[in-house]
Design the sequence.
């Protein structure tokens, strides 16, 4: 983080507060448990509203002298969390009632988790990486939601639906009460203010908190207040993880334009508000000093529901703030498409060459097409956002539970190999693997469905539901499948490890007949001990995914097309399972639990990441990675599929045209998500410690570039020293 | 026609504009003691050994027609036949020097055609001294120009002007080293006189489409006001003043010397600091030369 002098006081104040703050957990848990004893016989909807009412009354509200936003409550939510299940008070109902539905899930998967087949939370239901329907909130306000629910309640005859509508009305009113307490607090602070500036600051908060989120916002500032208040407060008191602030430039631009026209705001003032948003995440999560997952994403670019390109002055302000502040805590996910102007890509390239690794690019041309292929409406698909990292959700219409379960395809392959004596040919080996992969996926689906069908009984989410299309219309909460689209995604892992392993088996056993499958299995089980030359042969002489080898490209495309077909089952909310490949850092974790694989990967080392090639193979030309993914149809993967490119550090003069070209090339090759890695010092030091895991890092040495791990220790040290500059 | 190269590096972004492919031609007529591509010097094929990659499988020894059974013996009698490289799966043995046809090189280069077009990049010929294989170089350049691809050549220009002249219309960017204006020093450091080089640079400054001069700043050789001023004076006196870059010495190539079992005479030099480099650049800038520091 690098802040101009007018922004430093904001960071200092946040930092001071979060370094010493008391989430007040014990007192709140005590109050909530008493409430629970009184109301536990009530339907879960009404119980949840009682929780909301209690917390809206009891959570202490905090306002900042330097920040004009109102969102901070002591809700039992610890510093390094964004709400959801990490908020023990908001998720109280989940925590005390869910175990009987959830434990069977965890028990059933205990041994698979230990073996590294699967990585998952102790929970078949995804409480995280969600996006509330910000558009509805901005267009009708909480008041509009209450009106809709009350109207529906009058017409509703069914008990359960009436309970849902009642809970929406009660919880929404509780939320308004909470906003009112911010207004009251602001009034007190204005009264006690020592300077006129301070008094005006709190006075502005008071009038705003009285107006929004009850009413639709009318200004840029009010719209930001609405988004931040809902994300932070509902995330805390409803116990649901909202990992995204939504498609900000699309939503905010009309307000910004109107403010400018009316002379209500200047560009500098708008920029400062955006900086404040970034600084909040940066300081709350202490991003400068330690690594904490922030699960805070801003979506920019892309298009509106009619397909009009979004690249406006708010987009530019957000990118400007990122470039100025060098923020790492907030993930800025940038929707790109073949229709966007080059100027946009050049701005993204500029951020990359400034070595700010916080942005990801997501390809509208592919992701929207993938969503339409699933049967989702084009207008809805156009409003996708990413829920935390790369995983996609349609803003306002879809509830997608995911980023909680990862399945290791290489582990399934090994299991498949070890459970068969031999195969007549490669086709029967491949068929056996695909059968086992589909069967395993089915098993996880049924376990997840078994838990998820009870979701509404233990922890409904009326506030989240009230913003999502379909719920108020149908009288059903999102946990019952009320959303227009109710999806689930299980992420698969180890793309390149799987493809290279299958190709290696085909080559060694069936084409070259170098050894028998039985022999090879013993060698792998023994982690290639005494067979290092064979391993080296596999690594260096058998073609690998990611090197733009024509045969491998076709081979990979066929496998990924088949793998996509193992999803598609119905979930417990009437929606579908989507095929997905987003690795987060689980590729390391599952890799560390897995034995050696037929692609030459040693035991207990990472699997490959997303759509990227394995890290231990040599890539002579980073452009080959993009060409390789060009062979794959990523519209089969509606939940995105990320490719990472590691490039040498470049000055902006050199780097901007290069990165811009690569972004355009990626669009032409129809990749899904893209992120660059322009190297940093920490990464190089890590590479020194674990060279095999970082074989793809390229560095400029002197007259030439080289793979970092292949340099002598002394040379590496020198390059690390250079990276500091 | 075949030529001898020792590397084709794709996605090269420091030798000329845009994304480029650099083709390294083998053989050089200078012997600069700080040379960072020692494998480029001899025209004969050579084998390098990267001990960190060696798994001790012994295949190189058994495949070597000249080996007496001891691994190090390969270095002593090696004629660069490359059989050990074929059998070495790990890449511990690496061949420097391979004879390729123009078409073979072109098919490798053309893979990145789309990226050259997008970034204003192209192909750079480096070495070694590309003009040691002038006919081959001309064939390559001609083929690239007919495809409309941007070309750059890096040369020390210690060659007869007639060779350079034949290529000028085919080269978009001419990159040329200028190491010292003091002929005695030049001879002792590079083994050749700078007279021909300076004459050629004078001609190039008029005739080349686009000339970039580069001076490697070598501690103890030319890292002082006196030597750099002399170079700067020469550049400032040219009929058309070309762009200029200063390249700070760095010793990171010492590993390559080890793989070739060769002594690196500049091993213990300390690279100049960023501040020093800026002060050196000012020597050129004060004379109206557009000077950048290329790291």
Sequence:
């Amino acid at each position: 983080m690098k802040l101009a002098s007018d922004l430093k006081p904001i960071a200092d104040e946040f930092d001071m507060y979060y370094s010493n703050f008391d989430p007040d957990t014990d007192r709140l848990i005590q109050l909530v448990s008493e409430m629970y004893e009184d109301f536990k016989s009530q339907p879960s909807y009404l119980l949840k509203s009682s929780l909301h009412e209690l917390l809206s009354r009891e959570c202490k509200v905090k306002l900042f002298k330097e920040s004009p936003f109102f969102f901070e409550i002591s809700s039992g939510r610890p510093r390094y969390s964004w709400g959801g299940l990490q908020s023990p008070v908001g998720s109280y109902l989940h925590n005390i009632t869910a175990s009987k539905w959830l434990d069977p899930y965890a028990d059933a998967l205990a041994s698979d988790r230990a073996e590294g087949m699967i990585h998952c939370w102790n929970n078949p239901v995804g409480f995280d990486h969600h996006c509330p329907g910000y558009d509805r909130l901005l267009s009708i306000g909480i008041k509009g939601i209450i009106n809709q629910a009350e109207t529906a309640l009058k017409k509703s005859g069914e008990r359960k639906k009436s309970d849902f509508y009642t809970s929406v009305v009660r919880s929404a009113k509780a939320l308004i009460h909470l906003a009112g307490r911010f207004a009251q607090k602001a009034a007190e602070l204005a009264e006690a203010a020592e300077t006129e500036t301070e008094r005006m600051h709190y006075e502005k908060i008071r009038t705003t908190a009285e107006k929004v989120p009850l009413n639709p916002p009318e200004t840029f500032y009010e719209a930001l207040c609405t988004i931040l208040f809902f994300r932070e407060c509902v995330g805390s008191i409803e116990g649901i993880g909202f990992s995204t602030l939504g498609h900000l430039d699309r939503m905010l631009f009309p307000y910004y334009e109107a403010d400018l026209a009316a002379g209500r705001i200047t560009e500098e003032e708008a920029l400062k508000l955006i900086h404040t948003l970034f600084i909040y995440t940066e300081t709350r999560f202490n991003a400068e000093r330690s690594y904490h997952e922030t699960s805070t994403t801003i979506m920019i670019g892309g298009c509106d529901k009619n397909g009009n390109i979004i690249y406006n002055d708010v987009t530019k302000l957000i990118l400007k703030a990122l470039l100025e502040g060098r923020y790492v805590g907030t993930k800025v996910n940038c929707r790109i498409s073949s229709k966007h102007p080059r100027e946009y890509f050049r701005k993204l390239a500029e951020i990359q060459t400034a070595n700010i690794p916080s942005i990801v690019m997501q390809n509208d041309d592919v992701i929207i097409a993938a969503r339409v292929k699933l049967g989702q409406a084009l207008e809805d698909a156009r409003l996708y956002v990413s829920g935390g990292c790369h995983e996609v959700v349609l803003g306002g219409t879809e509830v997608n539970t995911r980023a909680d379960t990862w399945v290791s395809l290489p582990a399934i392959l090994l299991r498949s190999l070890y459970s068969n004596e031999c195969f007549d040919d490669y086709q029967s080996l491949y068929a056996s693997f695909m059968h086992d992969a589909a069967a395993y996926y089915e098993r996880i689906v049924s376990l997840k469905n078994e838990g998820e069908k009870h979701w509404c009984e233990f922890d409904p989410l009326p506030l989240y539901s009230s913003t999502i299309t379909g719920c108020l219309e149908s009288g059903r909460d999102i946990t019952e499948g009320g959303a227009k689209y109710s999806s689930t995604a299980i992420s698969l892992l180890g793309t390149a490890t799987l493809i290279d392993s299958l190709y290696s088996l085909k080559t060694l056993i069936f084409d070259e007949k170098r050894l028998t499958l039985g022999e090879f299995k013993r060698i792998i089980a023994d982690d290639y001990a005494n067979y290092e030359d064979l391993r080296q042969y596999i690594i260096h002489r058998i073609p690998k995914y990611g090197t733009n080898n024509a045969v491998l490209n076709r081979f990979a495309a066929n496998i990924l097309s088949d793998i996509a077909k193992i999803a598609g089952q119905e979930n417990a909310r009437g929606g579908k399972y989507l095929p997905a490949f987003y690795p987060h850092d689980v590729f390391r974790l599952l890799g560390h639990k897995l034995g050696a694989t037929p692609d030459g990967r040693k035991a207990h080392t990472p699997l490959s990441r997303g759509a990227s090639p394995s890290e231990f193979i040599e890539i002579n030309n980073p452009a080959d990675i993009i060409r390789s993914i060009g062979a794959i149809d990523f519209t089969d993967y509606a939940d995105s599929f990320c490719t990472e490119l590691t490039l040498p550090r470049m000055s902006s003069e050199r780097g901007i045209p290069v990165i811009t070209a690569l972004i355009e090339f990626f669009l032409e090759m129809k990749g899904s998500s893209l992120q660059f890695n322009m190297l940093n010092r920490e990464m190089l030091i890590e590479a020194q410690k674990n060279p095999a895991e970082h074989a793809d890092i390229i560095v400029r040495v002197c007259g030439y570039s080289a793979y970092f791990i292949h340099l002598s220790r002394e040379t590496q040290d020198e390059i690390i020293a250079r990276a500091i500059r | 026609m075949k030529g001898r190269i020792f590397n084709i590096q794709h996605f090269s972004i420091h030798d000329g504009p845009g994304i480029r492919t650099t083709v390294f031609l083998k053989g050089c007529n200078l012997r600069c003691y700080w040379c960072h591509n020692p494998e480029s010097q001899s025209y004969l094929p050579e084998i390098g050994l990267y001990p960190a990659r060696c798994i001790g499988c012994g295949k190189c020894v058994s495949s070597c027609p000249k080996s007496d059974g001891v691994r190090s013996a390969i270095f002593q009698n090696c004629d660069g036949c490359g059989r050990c490289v074929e059998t070495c799966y790990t890449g511990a043995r690496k061949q420097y020097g391979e004879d390729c046809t123009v078409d073979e090189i072109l098919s490798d280069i053309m893979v990145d055609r789309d990226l050259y077009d997008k970034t204003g990049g192209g192909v750079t010929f480096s070495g070694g001294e590309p003009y040691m294989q002038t006919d081959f170089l001309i064939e390559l350049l001609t083929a690239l120009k007919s495809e409309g691809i941007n070309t750059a050549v890096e040369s020390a220009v210690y060659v007869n002007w007639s060779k350079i002249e034949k290529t000028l219309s085919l080269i978009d960017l001419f990159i040329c080293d200028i190491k010292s204006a003091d002929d005695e020093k030049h001879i002792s450091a590079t083994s050749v006189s700078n007279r021909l080089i300076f004459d050629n640079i004078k001609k190039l400054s008029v005739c080349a489409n686009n000339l970039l001069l580069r001076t490697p700043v070598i501690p103890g050789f030319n890292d002082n006001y006196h030597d750099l001023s002399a170079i700067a004076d020469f550049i400032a006196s040219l009929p058309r003043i070309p762009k200029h870059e200063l390249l700070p010495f760095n010793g990171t190539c010492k590993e390559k010397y080890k793989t070739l079992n060769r002594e690196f005479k500049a091993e213990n030099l300390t690279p100049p600091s960023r501040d020093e480099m800026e002060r050196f650049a000012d020597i050129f800038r004060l004379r109206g030369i557009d000077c950048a520091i290329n790291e």
About this structure: The mean pLDDT of chain B is 93. The longest strand of chain B covers residues 2-12.
